[in-house]
Amino acid sequence: MSAADVGVLQRPNDRLRRRRAVNRVMELVAWLAAVLAVVILGVVIFSVARRGASALSLDFLTKPQAPFVPTAPQGLANAFAGTFIIVGLAALMALPFGVLIAIYVNEFAPKGIRNVVTLTLDVLAGVPAIVIGIFVYGLLVVGHHQSGYAGAFALGVLMLPLVSRSTIEVLALVPDSLREAALGVGAPRWRTTVGVVLPQTIGGVLTGATLAVARVAGETAPLLLVCSLVAPGTHYNPSQPLMTVPLAIYELSDSPEPADHARAWAAALVLILFILVVSLAARWLATRSRRKMAQAGR
Amino acid sequence: MTSLDVTGASRRPFSGRRLRLGDLILQGVAGIAALGSLVLVGLITWKVIEGARLSISTFGLSFVWTVAWDPVHNQFGAGSFLFGTAVTSFGALLIATPIAIGVALFLSELAPRGIRGPVTALVETLAAIPSVVIGLWGLLVLAPLLRDHVDPALHSTLGFVPLFGKASYGSNVFTAIVVLTIMILPIIASISRELFLSVPGELKEGALGLGTTRWEMIRGVVFPYARGGVAAAMILGLGRAIGEAIAVAMVIGSFTGISASLFSPGNTLAAWIAQQYAGLPTPLATSSLIYMALMLLVFSIIVNLLAQFIVRRAARRQGPSR
Amino acid sequence: MPRNGKLVRVSLVAAAVAAVAVVAVVVTAGAASARSSSGTVNGAGSTFVAPLVTNWEGPVQQQLGLQLNYNGVGSTGGVSAITTKQVDFGASDAPLSQFNPTCNTCVQIPWALAGTGVIYNLSGLQHLRMTGAVLAQIYLGKITRWNAPAIEKLNKGKNLPGTSITVVHRSDGSGTTYNFTDYLSKVSGSWKSHVGTGTSVAWPTGEGEPKSAGVAGAVRTTPGAIGYVDVYYAVHNKLGLMAVKNRSGKFVLPKGKGIKAAAQLDTHPAKDGSLSIVDPPKSKQYRNAYPICTYTYVDVQKSSGGNAANIKKLLNWAITKGQSYGPALIFEPLPKGVVAFDKKQIKKIHS
Asked: Would you say B163 and B261 are in contact if contact means Cβ atoms under 8 Å apart?
């Protein structure tokens, strides 16, 4: 650029001023959008925290629900127990299944099958939770009865694509050189996969698993259809329907009693805290395993 | 998600080496699991079709647009629910997309280094909030606010448009649209943000070097580059809105009919299914409910395949230059 | 072992511990529930009768040594639960003949009696007067403001505001809906031909809420709203309650006297156990009757398995001693003739 051109550029003309003004407006719009998103999140979390904190108490965590009996201490212990059991069972079902699918897709499948299976997982991930609920209702509840097992199965189906996809991603990151090296010293394929590749990915697998658990812990829709006819009091037997935290929130929200609303907020607070803690843990695991992967890749 | 299949030799099923029993077992078990996922999707489709069969044979395809839900006279149709799903989902998409793109641009181009990380984390936290919690907030905080302040204001200023009719219910279509907007905003924003970040630096630098303003660069380089991906993100957001049952059920006010006003209560396919969870009075009613679930299943598969197709086409067009 | 071997070991141990914990809880729960089922009776259904049944839980524990668990999911949920044998009893305000599929192997036993109150939210206006015909017009969407001439005519002297009427009804299958629509069909030919009677109907207008508590909650928080619930919810939440005109011309509230008078309409249950006491005709006997009353039923499988003895013990107590807990919750004690019929029905239950 010659000195003359620079001079031209330095003289702001109307067109340039307008373009700069438009640019500034657009930047402002983007800033506003970001502020709006942050404000929305802040308002929601603040509402939950403020209204929920007032109802949190030891009773809340340890005593079960007792509707229509105002003299009994009220809590949501039955919901916490039920969520723990049902989500635990769901993870037991989905994790091995999901990891095995990922192993097949990444270690053994020819390209065509790999595409079909990943497409299937993506489709499964997109099926609305309420439709999964109708499916499990037709499969396990019709002709039989509702149960915690049906609820766990429904949540497991929701977790499966999440666990599989994140495991596939992590497996793909393990460099082929590692596999070649193991095979080169005579290890069979299965030992290579289980003993060399998989341990490299454990951080990522755990990340995916914890994120999946966080996601389904708050899932209500399928439980409405297969695990909602719950008897009062605290129960632990999954062959009968068990109360769960999101279902409790859903039912308490309809009540005209302010005390019930307060309990719903408190349950929402506990749920959000649980999800936040789990997400943070998953993020920490992910960063840690990425660092290990980077080191191993050298 | 494309794996770097440099040699591929270590991943083929039969690589010409001695077959060990362990290999066969692992491959067999893992293969069965993979097959199981296909079987699962097939099973879901089959079970839903089976449950809907009575209603399909009674009403046929016209069920999809018939406006009726009368258990006393055994007349059922998904028309009003389909209308509600369409209005709430597209309404939410319309409002969420510009905001989401704004957020994505902010996070990829404009944010100072220190803010970028925390705000990204915040947006992703919004995505992690369960729908029942957003529904609770919508019902107890948002709905009264809208009913007492926003809806009447909109009605008094824009009431000549039938869209902004009389507002007496807090739980209505507009509240549902706002709630859905909050839920799909993070999805569209985070996918768009990753797309904008993936635009090659040289293209952006090149434009800026020619003297464009930042906005002109975004409009001329980033948007065209990321166009396909953003479209896919929008479609995924739409799919999420279509399938959302709980949050919508809590704030939409359960009215089975078609109304022009945003401030009247309404209903959607997913929310109605959730509301009838205790049971229905006749087998035809139950089957009709499952027919609606079948509609949702078909929509979600179409949405998913469409998004995949757009992403793959965009990836192919960009070629190996990434 | 690779570099993050420690992480692998730790996480495998943690996962194993978690899995063992879940399995242990499940197994001991199975054993525990097997033990406790010897003295437990589980039921589900009507939210209409839920206040009464849940208040029985304490006395039943004390006097009979039984643990009673009741879940108010709505009449439709209750009937489907007992049909699939998921509970020991189902509770419904609508007779079994109203449901399809229904429990063909059940006995139907009327075990409580109360009224469906018409609730509203207009501050400062106590006990508005209402007729069935006007109520039908409101629920048909034909009358949309509180100061409509038809309503003002009934409530001369009261300052009715111009607020729109926000109609609230049930979104789920409900025996209370059955009772309410049964009444509307009897007093309004227009309602009968357009909408009809049922546990779930095609509501011409208004918003739906799940369960009695949902309707009460919506009316409580929406100025200008109108709804229908079991009278307990109205009184307990201090909601406006309407005095409905009966055929004898009197405006009656759904309190004990009004319910008792209406109950005289039908004291002999039909063979299947159902009774209808809605809209008593004009007569000196029913002068004080509240027109929207209903019996509510408990449905039990005739062959109830191992728990039959406990169920029978509970039901015999419920229709006799249990009735004394009713009046405080605005349920009327059962008339003698109905109790006698019920005792015969209970005898039909065997293991």
From this structure: yes
